[in-house]
Design a protein that fits this description.
The chain has helices spanning about 85-90, 150-155, and strands at about 10-15, 30-35, 40-45, 50-55, 60-65, 70, 75, 80-85, 100, 105, 120-125, 130-135, 140-145, 150, 160, 165, 175-180, 180-185. It is mainly beta. The protein is about 5% helix and about 45% strand.
Amino acid sequence: MKAIYFSKIMAISQSYNKGNHKEHMPIDFPIDETYGTNNGAFYAPFDCTIVKKYKAKSNQIWITSKAEVETPSGTLYVTIFIGHISNQEYKNLNIGQEFKQFDVICHEHKDILSTGPHNHVSVGSGKIKASGWLKNNNGVWCLNTTGGAKKPEELLFVDDNFTTIKNSGGIIWTLLKSDKNYTYYKIGRAHV
């Protein structure tokens, strides 16, 4: 199974090297996804399980692939942190809950820590490590996985049969051009 970008429309409002996300680096590489539509959905990028929940000023969950998945960096387990989830959805999400690839997990939300509706997303290789958090030298809590947090383009393909790119966040993604067989090619800053 290939790890596929989690949105039908890619509309990244803040990449990992922009704004307050720079404070996460070099430990973590978060992106803010607005989905290019109202009430945009986060779709399971692979068959996965919720492995952690955390409720604070912003509701958050961690999901991990049920098995190793094919990524642009190789075949491995992938863990994803998702932030800014509504209270209503959060209470219906449970540790151990499973999703099949392309099932809706949650929707974008605006909470006290966000300026507008979106999901804050970080990806890592391997499984959740310790509490799933790691505080960096800037005092920012970052994703903690057994293989470390990675840039999203290192662990997620963009499938052109599923995702339309409105704003790539300046990231160069590996695009799957699918027909009977997948072919791979890079896309980049033209979609910014």
